[in-house]
Amino acid sequence: MNDKIEMACPSRNDLLGLLDESLVDADINRHISTCEVCQQTLDRLTDSADLANYRDVVVENNDRSRYFDPPITEGDLGSLEGLAIERLIGTGGMGDVFLARDLNLGRKVAVKVLSCRQSHESTARFLREAKSAAKLKHDHVVSVHSTGRTSDGTPYLVMPLIEGLSLKECIVKGRADFRQMTDWIRQIALGLEAAHSEGMVHRDVKPGNILLDASDGRAKLTDFGLARSLGDETLTHADVLTGTPQYMSPEQANGETELGPATDIYSLGITLYECLVGTAPFQGQPLQILEQHRSTTPLRPSRLSRQVPHDLDTVCMKAIAKLPSQRYASVAEFGNDLQRFLEGRPVLARESTSLEKFLMWCGRNRTVATLAGTTLLLLLTLVVASTISAWRLRSANAEIVGEKEKATSAEKLAVADRNAAIAALETVVDSLYEELADNAASIQTREQVINAAIDGLEAISKVDGDMKSDRTACRALMRIGDLCFLKGDQASGELNYDDAVKIARTLHTTHPDDLTAKRELATVLGRFAANYLRIGNVKYVPLSDEATKLLKEVVEKEPTDFDALLRLVVQHDQQMEQIRFNANNEPQKVIDYGESIIKDIKQVIQLNSGNRSAYETAQKIHFNIGRGYLESSQPAEAAEHFTQAKVYIDQALIQAPKNVKLLTSAAIIERAHGMALASQARLDDAIDYYQSALGKLKRLAAADPTNAMQQQHVANTQTIASLTYMQEGRFDEAADASASAVKIFEDLLELNPDNEMARVVLVQTRFQLAGILVVDDQLDEVELACKQIRLEMEGKKFAANFLPAINYFRSGANIIDHTAVWLKGNRPSESSSSDQCLALLLSARRDVRDSTTNQLSAETLSMVERMELKLEGTNLEAMVTLINGFEGLHPFVGGQVKIGEAALYGRLAENIQEAQGAAGKQEVDWLVGKSVAAIEAFAAQMPVAQLKEKVLTNYELKWLRGTDAFQTAWQKIVDSE
Amino acid sequence: MASTTSPSLLLRIRDPNDQDAWSLFFDLYEPIVRSYSFQKRIQPADMDDIVQDVMSSVAKAIRSFEYDPKKGRFRAWFGTVTANRIKTFLGKQNRQREKTPQREIVNSDEYVDPDTDWITIFSERVFWSACNRIRNNFNETTWACFEATWVRNESANEVADQLNVPVHSVYVNKSRVVKRLESEIRLLADDMPISQGDIS
C-alpha cells in the first residue's frame, strides 16, 4: 500500500477484458481497489440488466428497490451512542436495519431504526415493548442488546448481527427440504414458548421474521413485541393495506385487540404451510386475504405437494384451525407434535387409527413393546386371524402369560405412548370380545384374555404415575372397568368406573364451557351405564340420564358435533334396549321412543356419511323399532323400518364387506322383514325372504363351523320358516325345516349342554314339529316327538323368563300326544278337555277333507263315544256345537276352536262347490255364511291385528277368503277397527 | 463448460427422442403451471388434468413451431397458453359450455404476459433452477462474491474485505456467475438476448 501509484482510470475495454479474464494487469487491479469511479463502472458492467429483472421479482418482491433508495441514510442517523453505523443492510415494515460496530465491545451489531412518522405515543410503546423483549434470552429468539433514541428522537434497537438467510428467502430459493424447515419451525416454537411463558405475544410471526443463523445453524425469531407496540390497537383499513396480511390469524383479521398465544400458533402454522407448499395458503388483495383467513379452510398441504406426509399435514391444519380453541392449546404442544413427527412417532393432532398408532409405537419402542406390546401383538394376531377357535386361544393365552412374566422390566412411557397403547388395546379387546362373545365355547378363554388385557392396561396406566387429572388415565380406568364387568367382577368394575367418573367430572367442573370435557364425561357415564344395563342393574338409570342430558347440551351448542351426536344415538340405542327389556308386552313404548329419536339418527348420518358406527347404530335402532311394530301386530310399519335398517346396514357393509357381525345382522333383518310379510299374509314373499336370509346365514355358519351363535341363527331361521310353511299347508317342507333346525340344536347342545337358550328353542321347534305331524296325520311320529320334548326338559333348570314358554310347550306336548292317541282310536291314560277338543277338531277335519256331505264318519262318532261325550246329532253342526261347549281350554287349542269351525264349514263348502258346481250354490252359500259367522264371532274376542294374522294366514281358509261373502264381512271387520 | 454453444432446451425438445430434454422440460415447467393454477384457485382434483393438458399442448406447439420467438418471450407465450387453458376450464365449469375446438393455441401478433403472478412464478422457478444447476460449478468464494454484490447489493470493497480477496477478484467472480447464470437461463427458457458480448 505504501508504494501506491496514482494512475489514470483504465478504459472501458480494459475493464471488460478484466471481467472476461482476457486481461490480467496488476496495476489495474491495484487501481480499482481504491478508485470509486472504476468500481461504479464495474458495478454497472456486471449488473446484467436482464438478470436484474429476475432479481427484482425474486428477491423479496421489490423490497430490494429500497436498497437503492433508502429513506434514512447513514448520514441522517448521525452518530449513535457507542455505535459506528456502517451501512444499510435491510429494510422492513418496522424500519431500516443498519450494520454497525459496537465501539465498546468491538463486535458487529444490527441496529434497527424505527421508521419515521410515528406518534409520540407509539414510539414510547415501542421502547417499552423493546425493553421487555430485551429481557427475553433464548436460543431461538433474536435478543435485544439495548435501546436508544437518535438525535432527532427516533427510537432504535441494537441487536446481534445474524448472518444468514431469512426463512422467506430460504423458501423462495427452495434450498432446504421440508424436514429441515419443519425443524426450524419447531425451534421457533421453542422460542415462542419461552416468550409466551413471559406473557409476551409476538403477533407478527412470518417467514421474513425468522432468521437462519449461519454461525450456529439455529432458526431465530426476530422483531419480538414490535408488532404489538406499533400496531395500533385497532386494525384500520390502511394498516391492512400496508401490512402483510398473509400470516394474520382470523382473530387479528377480525380486528380483535386481545390477542393471545393462539395468534402466534396460527401464524407459525401458516409459516409451516408455506414451508411445505412453497406459498402461503391465501393469495390476492389484502382485504380478500383477510376474508379468507376468517372463512376459507385452505387445502391440505399434501394435496398441493405430494411429498408432505399425512401426519405433518395434520399438524399444520390443526395449527391453522379457524377457532383458537381448535388449535393447539399451547405453542409447546405444537412444537412437541413437530418433534414427534420428526422422530417418526405418531402425532397427537389427529386420531390416527388405533392400529396405526399401535404399530408405530411397537416399531419404535421395542423394550416397552415387550410389556404390553407382546400381549397386544398376540391378541392382535388372533383378531386378524379372525377365526378363533377355543384351542387356539388357549394356547395363545399360555404364550401371553409367559411373555408378560418376561417383560416386567420395561420402564417409562410417555403419555402419548400410553394413549396409543391404550387405544390399540381397546381396539384389540373390542374386536376380540366381539369375536369371543359370539362364541359360546370359549367363555373360559375369554376370561383369561380379559385378565391379560387388564394387567397390560394397569401396567400402562401406572407408568408416569400421574393418574389424577389425566384423560389417558380416565380412558384406561374405563376400559379396565369394562373388562371387570365383562368377566363378572362387578365390584372392581364399579371401583374403576367411579375413579374414571371422578377424573372426568373434575375436568368438566374445572372447564365448564369446554365441550370436549363435557363429551368425555358423558362418554364415561354412558359406558358405565351400559355395563350396568348389561347385567340388568337399575343403577344405570341416573348415569344414563345424566349422560343423555350432557350430550344434549353439547349437541345444542354444537349441533354439528358429530362425536357427541353419535354418542347420543348410541345412548338412545341403549335406552331402547332397556325399554324393550322392561316393556315386555308393551312394544308401543319401544316404538314411541324409537320414533322420537329418528331425527337424531338422520342428523348423525348426514353429518358423517362415512361413519360405520353411525350406520351400525342406526340400523339397530330401526331394527328394534321394526321389531316393536311386529310385536304390536303392525307389520306394514315394521316392514318400513326393516327396509330402512337394510339401507343402513348395506352402507356399513360397503365399508366392511366381510364383517361377520354386519353380515349376520343383514340376514337377520331380512328374516324379520320376512316375518313382517308373513304377518301381512304375504306368505310366498315371506318364504323368499327366509330363503335368502337362510342362504346367507348358512354360508356364514359354514365359514366358522365352531361358532355356536351362527349355527343357532340358521336353526332359528329354519324354525321361523317352518311355521310359515305350515300356514301355507306345505307340511312336508314345514316338517323338513323343523327337523333340520332340531338337528342343529341337538348338535349344539351336545357340545355345550349349558346353552339354555338353544335348549328352549329346541323345545319350541320340536313342539312345532309335533304340531305339524299331528295335523299331517303322521300319528306314530307324533308320539316320538312328544317323548323327546319331555326328555329335553327332564331334570333341566330354566331361567325364570323362560319358564312360561317351557310350561306352555310341556302341556302343549301332552295335548298333542294325547290327541294322537285319540286319533289312533285309543284312549290315553289320562285326558284333558283340551286334547279331547283338539282330537275332535282334527277328526272332523279329516271327515270333511274328502266329503261333500256334512255327515261325520263312524270313527269320529266312536271317538265321541269313547270320550263319553254327548253329541246332538251326527252331522258337522252337532260337532261344532260340542266343540264350542268346551271350557278351560289350553291356549294352544283355544285359539283354534273358532278358526277350526270356520275352516270346517269353509272346507265343506269348497268340496261341494267343486263336486256340484252351480247346482250346489244354495248349500255352499249357507256353509259360507256359517263360516263367516264363526269368523265374526271370533273377531269379537280379539284385536283385529291378531285376527288378521290368524285368518289371513290359515291355509284351510284359503278358499273361503276368495268368496264374496267373506270379502264383504272381512271389510266390515277391518273397518270397525 | 461450453454452455453457450449448447442448443437451448426449447430447441432440443423439438426432437421427440431427446429424453433428457423432455424430462428436464417437464421437471422445470410443470411446477410453474401447477402453482399458477393453484393461485387461480383450480381445485386439486382438476389440477392434474389442467397441468397435463397445458404441458402436452405446449410440447406439441413447440414441436410444430407454433411458438414464434419473433413475437415475444417464451415466458409470455407459455403464460398465455396456460392462462387460456385455465380460462377455458373455468368457463366450461361455470357455464357448462361445450368445448370449442382450439387449433391454434395463441393467436396474436405479440405475446404478452397474462399477469404479474405469472411473471413472478415463472421467474422464480427459472431463476432458482438455473442457480441450482450452476451452483456446483463455482467455489464458495466465487459464489459468495456474486451473492453479496449482486443479490444483496453490498459494495465490492466491503465484500473483498469480508472474504479476504482483492477487489478486482470480487468483480471477476461476480461477472463469471452473472454470465453463467444468463446463459443458463437462456438455455432453459430462451429468455436472454442473444447478443452477449456487451452486457452493459
Task: Describe the protein's architecture and organization.
The complex is a heterodimer of chains A (977) and B (200). Chain A has 977 residues and is mainly alpha-helical. Chain A is built from 45 helices and seven strands. In chain A, the strands form two sheets. In chain A, strands 1-2-3-5-4 form a five-stranded antiparallel sheet, with helices on one face. Chain A has a two-stranded antiparallel ribbon with strand order 6-7. In chain A, strand 6 (210-212) and strand 7 (219-221) form a beta hairpin. The longest helix of chain A has 26 residues, at 891-916. Chain A starts with 11 loop residues before the first helix and ends with a helix. Residues 61-78, 229-243, 351-373, 380-416, 435-444 and 463-469 of chain A have low confidence and may be disordered. Chain B is mainly α and 200 residues long. Chain B has eight helices and no strands. Chain B has helices at 9-12, 19-39, 44-63, 74-95, 116-135, 140-151, 156-163, 167-189. In chain B, helix 3 (44-63) crosses helix 4 and helix 6 (140-151) runs antiparallel to helix 7 (156-163). The two termini of chain B are 23 Å apart. The A-B interface holds A 16, 18-21, 28-29, 32-33, 39, 42-51, 53-55, 57-59, 61, 64, 67-68, 87, 89, 172-174, 278-279, 283, 299, 303-304 and B 35, 38-39, 44, 117, 119-120, 123-124, 126-128, 131-132, 149-153, 155-158, 160, 166-168, 171-172, 174-176, 178-179, 181-182, 185, 191-193, 198-200.
